[in-house]
Structures are given as structure tokens and as C-alpha cells.
Amino acid sequence: MNFISTNNPARRVPLKEAVLSSLPPDNGLYMPERLPVLEPDFWQDWRDLTFQEIAFRVAQAFFGEDIPAAALRSIVDEVLTFDAPLVPLTGQQYILELFHGPTLAFKDFGARFMARLMGWLTRDDAKLLTVLVATSGDTGGAVAHAFHDVPGIRVVILYPQGKVSGLQEKQLTTLGGNITALEVDGTFDDCQRLVKAALLDTGLAGRLQLTSANSINISRLVPQIFYYIHSARQLPAGTEPVMVVPSGNLGNLTAGLLAERLGLKVRQFIAANNRNDVLTQYLAGHPYEPRPSEVTLSNAMDVGAPSNFARMLALFGNDQQAMRRRVSGCMVSDEQTRAAILEVANAHDYILDPHGAVGWCAAKQWQLKHPEATTVILETAHPSKFPEVIESVLDSGRVVIPERLACLANKEKHAIPMPADEAAFSAWLGQLPATK
Ligand SMILES: *Cc1c(COP(=O)(O)O)cnc(C)c1O
Question: How many structural domains is the chain composed of?
Fold first, then answer.
């Protein structure tokens, strides 16, 4: 299957180019040239399929023409070595736990799939592949972990100095080997700007094989479809859930909309924003106005210019009203986020992380107006990744830190300081070795 740019449907590229170039030269985003369909029998027995089987069938719909079934099946099986369980808070409110992967965040799904797909696509190339990642928190850890020790691939991570949590920083800066962390003197939007500039820099492109791995890469979106379908399958038969998605760059939400296009029955999508509510404002009828990001408790959603916006709109054929009908926005403040963590801990003995808490608030507001609704709240990270926030609300010791996170505390940070300057970043990249 070919992929097209949101800025120019006439420009078609094969899978390898869409995945490795990440951004089309016209600064759009890649989308499949046609929305794939699942084999006709899928929706007859989907509730009886395993997570792995659902994932394989979805992956095949997108990549089956390009990747042999056996290779695709083993990629999917290597990605899904952990589950995405659906936990009921009440009979009408469910938490979809997406934090059972190695870095305790939903980005493990996309990153692990992308790493293996890139590895497969470049298995015969002579040049080393350099993967650039801008992160506001979780992406970098998930990507670093996903690519760590993949032969023929080097990863460069840019993160905003002082704007990620202590443990997030350890996840980014302690792997070593083929993973290098750059501590950027600026915001997440600066990090994203440096990555975009490097990818469009023709001088660099002639020497290095560069690619990006943040949520703009098409290969990140597809594995996020898997768990929407898997979650709905765990609900009582016939339930059409309201999917509540804590949102930043809108990759997760776009994947949900793709799941619906594949035939999943969803009552409504809710984009839950923190103070960085560019999307919520837009969905309420205002013009789309990106702006600088602000720091909040749910820092992985501190995004002022959501990079998947054009892709989302493209899914609706650029029909703004159609998108506004299908997706509702909700802005949740830091005060509401803290109150939600406390309320859910007291009422249900369940500890949300700050991102899930934003989702829970949005779900609660929706259910006040739609008491019959069943909500599925995507819990995008494990609460132990945000100890400062949780312990400002709950007694300390309530969150058990999983071993794979706990052991990071003793490891030493290795990061290279970098100004928020395109020329400096380009010069630094320019001195890296180019071949395997
Ligand atoms: C990245 C991230 C989000 C936002 O997801 P998008 O796909 O960028 O909208 C939400 N929560 C956590 C914990 C994240 O890491």
C-alpha cells in the first residue's frame, strides 16, 4: 500500500519511505492512500480473538501487502508481550490500563512496533539509521527502550531541560549504547522544531539516513488501534463505549478514530486536555490557534501545537463540522486533576496518574450530561512515574513502584546540553558517523 501527504494527495510513497522519511517534503503528514478494511469475517468473531490475533489482523490490513504474514506476526508477538487490561471502576466507567509495558506508558505500544518495523525495513541497508525523537516526557523513554540494542539503528532524544519528571529523565538518559540524550535549553515545542528542521535539512539528509520517531510517524499510529478494539471486546456485549483520551499530540486519539473506521462501534470520542487546550477550544467552535505550551501536572500533554491535528482533520475529509460532531473536547485544570486523584483513590481505591486523572474528569463531566453512557478512560501511564504529584495528594507509600522503574534511581544520567538553536543541533548531527 502507498501513503499520501495530508498536504498533497497526489504525492504517493511506498511504506518504507513513509516510515523512514517520517515527514513528507511538503511538511504534511503521511496517511494511508486508502483506509484499509478488515477481512469480512473479522467483526463476526472479534470478541473471541486474542489481543495478539486482533493486532495481527489490524496490522495486516495496513501492512499486509508489504510485509509477509509470518514476519508481521512475529513483529506483533514481540511487541505485545504484555496486556492492556480493562478495569471497572463502576458498571459504567472503565479504566483501560495502557501502562503494562517496559516503560509504564502507552507509548511502549507504538514505539516497540515502530522499532521492529524499521529494523525489518532496513535489514539490508548499508547506512546506519539515525532516529530523532523530541519528547515532552514519555515518548523518549518508550522510544529509547524500544530501540535499545537494535542493530543498525542509533537514537537521539531531545528533551526540554527541567520540564520532565526525575524518573522520566532517568529513563531517557541511562540506557547508553545506541541511545544519546540531548538536554535542550527550551520547551518541548523547541525540541520539536529542532527535529523538524533537521529532517528538512537537505545537507544533513545527503549524509545521514535520518528519521523521526515521535507521534508523527505513521507506524506509531497503527499499533495504537489494537488496544481500542481489544478494550471494547472486554465490555459487556453490545456496549458502545465513549472513548475518553487524554490528549497532547493527538496520536492516540487519531488511532481511536482509525479503529472506528475499521468498524469498531464507538458512541463518542472525548479529547481530554489540560490547560494546553488548543483542541478543546477548536472543537467548541473557535478557530484552530496553536500557541506556546504551558507546564502542567500532566506534562506529557503540554503541547501547544498538536502535531497530528492535520491527520485527524484529513480523516474527516477536512470537514470541520463532521470532526466537531464526532469528537468532544474537555479542558481540565491542575486543581481538578489533583481533586480527581483524591476522589478516585477514596471512592474506588484506585490510583490514577495525572494524565488518566484528566481523562477521568472529562468522563465524569460527560456522564453528568449523559447518565446512560459507558466510558472507557485511557490510562496512559502508571502513577508511580509521577511521585511528586501523587504524594502531594495522597499519603506517601500508596503507590507501589514497579521494579523496572525502581532500579533506574541508582543509574547515572548521561545527557549532552544543547541550545534551542537549529544551527547548533545541525552541526552536532553533522559530526556523527554515517555508516553501520
Ligand atoms: C504522550 C502522552 C499522552 C498524549 O498522547 P498523544 O498521542 O500525544 O495525544 C498522554 N499521556 C501520556 C502519559 C503520554 O505519555
Answer: 1
